[in-house]
Amino acid sequence: MIRVSSARWNCLLACLSLVVLPACAEVAAERPEAPVPTAEAVAQAKPAGGVSAVTPAKTEVAFPELPQGANEIDKDAPKTFTKTDSGLQYRVLRKGTGKAPKKTDTVKVHYHGWLNGGKVFDSSYKRGESIEFGLNQVIPGWTEGLTYANEGGMIELEIPSKIGYGDRGSPPVIPGGATLHFLVELLQVK
Questions:
Q1: 132 near 101, Cβ under 8 Å?
Q2: Which domains does the chain have, with CATH numbers?
Q3: Per-residue pLDDT tens listing for the chain (190 residues)
Q4: Rounded to whole angstroms, how far apart are CA atoms 136 and 113?
Q5: Does 148 qualify as catalytic in the annotation?
Q6: Which of 74, 105, 111, 174 is labelled catalytic?
Q7: pTM for this structure?
Q8: 165 belongs to the catalytic site
């Protein structure tokens, strides 16, 4: 699969609609049985499986600095993120051996959250105690993201504002439109 940024994807779609689609129409005129794709159909095409065809380039990203009290990252942990249709980006930093939570499960976690630029806005590690909550009681990015982890594992999440706190944010700590970053250790699924 070719991976491109959304800006490049939009440029490719524009070029496609200007160059390729008219050429297809000419071929279709000669071969009436050949279907001609519309620009809209091409733009909306997505593969099966839940992962968007428009994912960022596989750029390696440094691992986050682990907060005090966090367990280690696997030596073979990916240096790139996977992007889902919702816009969530994640990478499993430590594979767990337990079960993966469902969106309706209660989980016990340790987490560390920061904004673009590195400013930490919340951390259960800094408070010295883990937290327990229902996955259906948190922002959609957490609900989706934790389903990619297994009990005993660690995951890094990059949550765009549309599945985070949106344009309203969570004043005064999280500004509107903020991308959220989390390091999460999934301690237990209940």
A1: no
A2: 6-44 (no CATH), 82-189 (3.10.50.40)
A3: 344 444 443 433 333 333 333 333 343 344 444 344 444 443 344 333 444 434 554 789 999 999 999 999 999 999 999 999 999 999 999 999 999 999 999 999 999 999 999 999 999 999 999 999 999 999 999 999 999 999 999 999 999 999 999 999 999 999 999 999 999 999 999 9
A4: 19
A5: no
A6: 111
A7: 0.71
A8: yes
Catalytic pick among 155, 163, 165, 174? 165
Beta bridge partners of residue 157, listed in sequence order? 90, 182
Which of 103, 90, 69 minimizes the C-alpha distance to 189? Answer: 103
Among positive and negative, which fits the CA dihedral 106, 65, 74, 163?
positive
Q: Name the active-site residue from 73, 85, 105, 122.
A: 122
Per the DSSP assignment, residues forming a β-bridge with 155 are: 92, 184
Residue 159 is among the residues annotated as catalytic for this protein: no
Active site includes 163?
no
